[in-house]
Amino acid sequence: VNHCVEDTRERLGPGRLPSMHSIEKEAYVWYNREILTFERAEDYLVGEKARRGELADMKRLLQIRDRNFSATERRYVEGWLDMGFPLESVALAYDKTVVKTGGLTWKYMDSILRSWHGKGLHTPAEIEAGDGQPRANGRAAAAAQEQGPDRPRDDAARLRRLLDRTKNS
C-alpha cells in the first residue's frame, strides 16, 4: 500500500492517494510476479527505487523538465535501460541524434542504440572501439591528418560536458 501511495504522489502530485482499484491492480501485478514474501517485496521495491532514479537521470540527460515521460517516451527509455545501456552511452546517442537531426528525435536515437545493442556495444569504450565511423573525405580527411593520430577524441570531452550540464540542471 505504501508503494502505491508513493507512486501515486510521484505521478499525480502531493496530496493525491491511490484508489482501492489501483492498489488491487498492483496486488495482482505482485502476485503474477510471484512477489509473495517480504524478502521478494523488498527486492522488488529496491529495484523499483533504482529504476526511478535511472529514469530521473535520463530526464535530466534528455533535458526534459517540468513533466513526466509520455508512455511512449518511457517505453523507449526503459527499453534502453533493459538492453543494458549506462547513462554515458545514452548521452553519446543523444549527442549524435542532436547533431544529426537538430533536436531529440526519439526514433532516430532508438535506432542508434538498437544498432549498438545488436553489435554488442554498450559501454562508451565499447562503442568508441567498435562503432565504425564513416571515413572522412576531402578537406575533413586532410584536417584529421594534420591533427595527427595522437590527438585525443573530442567525444569524451563532449560527453563529460553534457553529463556535467545534466547533473547541474
Give structural notes.
- With 169 residues, the chain is mainly alpha-helical.
- Helices cover 71% and strands 0% of the residues.
- It has helices at residues 2-12, 20-32, 38-61, 71-83, 87-101, 106-118, 124-130, 139-147, 154-168.
- Residues 134-152 have low confidence and may be disordered.
Compile the SSE list and pairings.
Elements: H1 2-12, H2 20-32, H3 38-61, H4 71-83, H5 87-101, H6 106-118, H7 124-130, H8 139-147, H9 154-168
Helix pairs in contact: 3-5, 4-6, 5-6, 5-9
Task: Please give a quick description of this structure.
Helix content is about 70%, strand content about 0%. The chain has about 170 residues and is an all-alpha fold. Helix 3 runs parallel beside helix 5 (about 85-100), helix 4 packs parallel to helix 6 and helix 5 (about 85-100) packs across helix 9.
* Low-pLDDT segments: 134-152
Overall number of strands: 0
Helix and strand pattern = HHHHHHHHH
How many helices in DSSP terms?
Answer: 9
Tell me the strand percentage band: under 5%
Helix content: over 70%
SSE class: mainly alpha
* Biggest sheet layout: none
Average pLDDT metric: 84
Globally, the shape reads elongated
Distance between the termini: 32 Å
Q: How big is the Rg?
A: 20 Å
